[in-house]
Write a structure and sequence with these properties.
The chain is α+β, with helices and mostly antiparallel strands and 349 residues long. The chain folds into 2 domains: 106 residues, Phosphorylase Kinase, domain 1; 220 residues, Transferase(Phosphotransferase) domain 1 (Transferase(Phosphotransferase), domain 1), CATH 1.10.510. The strands form 5 sheets. A 6-stranded mixed beta sheet has the order 2-6-7-5-4-3, with helices on both faces. Helix 6 runs antiparallel to helix 10, helix 8 packs across helix 9 and helix 9 packs antiparallel against helix 10. The chain starts with 8 loop residues before the first strand and ends with a strand.
Length: 349
């Protein structure tokens, strides 16, 4: 598979964030609950390795159980940062205290005890999107609903807060799913704040980059700039992964030996015959536009959200009028990604 799981990434922005960090403690006190280290040791059975449910470059994530106002235990996700994770710890609190949106993971509280830096989040019982793409149990309609939800969350962080926020490491592993399979954005430890809402967006540069390059927007590779169009590009790759992991033949045109033998020949029976052609065409158009090489040619996340909602409504309408028949897709889409081109041969009937 040419798309690998997203690795954690980190860079240091050149913009000065000291002023925001000076107000950090006030924001925490107003919006977050403070837990003692003893509370969180008890919640995780002293950070039992059997409780680990995820890992990042700077942290381990545990499934924990806390008591609320003396009531019965409730489940939380507890992220414990290592010695190199102080900056990511500060960044997540700084940003998540501002983000109260149903498509962003909810920060419950924190612990800042000597060298221990720990965050407590709502528990997302259905894990990450990449896990569900691997097991192939998502219907096409649910996949589309999840994509709409992610677009809504990105639109919000770009335009809905006092300052625009660029996620920067969006991928299927940083999209989490709750009890109802509703998506929420996570992984804000290396996100970047832009200009204030309604003001002219300034160019943000990063000094260096560490981590996996697979979901990196082209403008960063070229000139180290970070804008909202970075997230648009990454979202396009998420859409591409939703497609390629489950549904269609994929050929890498840059490697001629694969022209006769596609890399992937897997059609998920759950989606086979279930995708309305009109819906699919809108979905593909959105994906291709998000992956444009030039940032200015990519749509905004607001435009993406509207188009995906339109695709979802077309699917729903088609399902009402065509309840007894399978749909047939047979076409070709060429997606240029830098020096390589990928062809998706849609065959789902």
């Amino acid at each position: 598979m040419f798309l690998s799981c997203l690795g954690m990434s980190c860079w240091k922005p050149t913009s000065n964030t000291d002023s925001s960090l000076r107000q950090f403690s006030t924001v925490i006190q107003e919006l977050c609950q403070q837990f003692s280290l003893a509370d969180l040791r008890k919640a995780t059975n002293n950070f039992d390795l059997n409780r680990v449910i995820g890992n990042g470059m700077f942290s381990e994530i545990y499934k924990g159980y806390l008591q609320h106002n003396g009531a019965s235990d409730y489940t939380v996700a507890i992220k414990r940062f290592n010695d190199q994770g102080c900056e990511a710890f500060n960044k997540e609190i700084e940003l998540l205290c501002q983000l109260r949106h149903p498509r962003c993971v909810y920060l419950i509280g924190f612990c800042n005890h000597e060298n221990e830096k720990i965050l407590v989040y709502e528990y997302m019982s259905n894990g990450s999107l990449d896990e569900h793409l691997q097991d192939g149990k998502l219907s096409w309609k649910k996949s589309l609903e999840i994509c709409v939800g992610v677009a809504c969350g990105l639109h919000y962080i770009h335009t809905g807060a006092k300052r625009s926020i660029f996620h920067c490491i969006l991928g299927t592993s940083t999209i989490l799913l709750d009890d109802h399979m509703e998506p929420k954005l996570a992984g804000f430890g290396v996100s970047v704040q832009g200009s204030r809402f309604m003001s002219k967006q300034k160019q943000i540069n990063a000094e260096h980059f560490m981590g996996t390059w697979g979901f990196m927007a082209t403008q960063f590779i070229r000139d180290r700039t970070i804008t909202a169009k970075w997230d648009v590009f990454s979202f396009g790759l998420v859409l591409l992964e939703v497609v390629c992991r489950r549904m269609f033949y994929v050929i890498n045109l840059a490697e001629k030996e694969f022209l006769e033998n596609p890399i992937e020949e897997k059609i998920d029976p759950i989606v086979k015959g279930k995708i309305a052609p009109d819906c699919w065409q809108v979905f593909v158009d959105v994906m291709v536009n998000c992956l444009k090489y030039e940032p200015d040619e990519r749509p905004t996340m607001g435009e993406v959200e509207v188009q995906l909602e339109h695709a979802l409504s077309m699917q729903e309408q088609a399902d009402i009028t065509n309840s007894n028949c399978d749909y047939t897709l047979l076409s070709k889409t060429i997606i240029p990604l830098g020096v390589k081109q990928y062809v998706i041969l849609e065959k789902c009937n």
